[in-house]
Amino acid sequence: MVSAAAGATVTGVRGASPAVAPASGRQDYVPASGRQEYVLSTATAEDVGGARAVMLDTVYHDLRSGYVPRWHADIIDLEGAYLRPERCTLMVVRYGDEVVATGAVRDRGPQAPPNPAWIAARFPSGSTAQLCRIYVRPEHRRHGLARLLVRELGAFAAGAGGYTSLYLHTDPSVPGAEPFWRSMAHEVCDERELPGGGQGIIHFELPMPAPVRP
Predict the structure, then answer these.
(1) By three-state DSSP, how is residue 134 classified?
(2) Secondary-structure breakdown of the chain: helix, strand, coil percentages, each rounded to the nearest 5
(3) What is the pLDDT of residues 151-196, one digit of tens each?
């Protein structure tokens, strides 16, 4: 499967495996019906409002934490967090004119506290690409969008230079989150097994893809 370059576009249809645009240009997936519905691309300033809406709806309705500044400040300043830094990115999936899924790479590893000190040491900032904000609106789930985002975000990290680890954490209380990540990533630490239960989250590492040759 060919990975898209940063800024390339991926299109597909609900219920079908999206095709990926190679670095040389765009490649559309056109089913027998001729319908082309999902489009994945690197976010621009025009996508920020729709991406923020997906993220805030997720933290309120799925994570049930609401907006907490120390955890979610990046959602308010998506451009500063992901669009402007060279080694960070924000990707969105559109369905028609609506942003229905998001995913990002940040260049900061997990911090201690609140994470265990050995986790922070294993995944230091600078050499760790942290996958985050991989959210899909409920009505668009089970169409492979999250997996597509993970694949493209991994390709971005591999091509950005300087990253040696691909890290993420997830809240297993969110329905479907734990089995999804266990199907793709290696568990590093399940904090539920720590004394006192820690934060109740699970830390994962994904294999770093090989950089795509031009």
Answers:
(1) strand
(2) 30, 25, 45
(3) 999 999 999 999 999 999 999 988 899 999 999 999 999 999 999 9
Q: Is the pLDDT of residue 72 over 50?
A: yes
What pLDDT, on the 0 to 100 scale, is given for residue 57?
Answer: 92
Residue 19, pLDDT score: 42
Report DSSP state, residue 81: I
Phi, psi at 90, each rounded to 5°:
-130, 130
CA–CA distances in Å: residue 12 to residues 8, 15, 26, 166, 168 = 14, 9, 12, 26, 26
C-alpha 134/C-alpha 171 separation (Å) is 12
Task: Count other C-beta atoms under 10 Å from residue 97's C-beta.
Answer: 6
Arithmetic mean of pLDDT, 74-88:
96
Q: Where are the beta strands (DSSP E) in 19-88?
A: 38-42
CA distances from 111 to 120, 124, 169 (A): 5, 8, 12
HSE-up (13 A, CA, CB side) for residue 41: 21
pTM exceeds cut of 0.90: no
- Tell me the pLDDT of the chain averaged across its residues: 85
The answer to whether residues 80 and 45 touch, using CB atoms and an 8 Å cutoff, is no
Closest C-alpha to 145, from 78, 91, 74 = 91
Rg (CA), the chain: 17
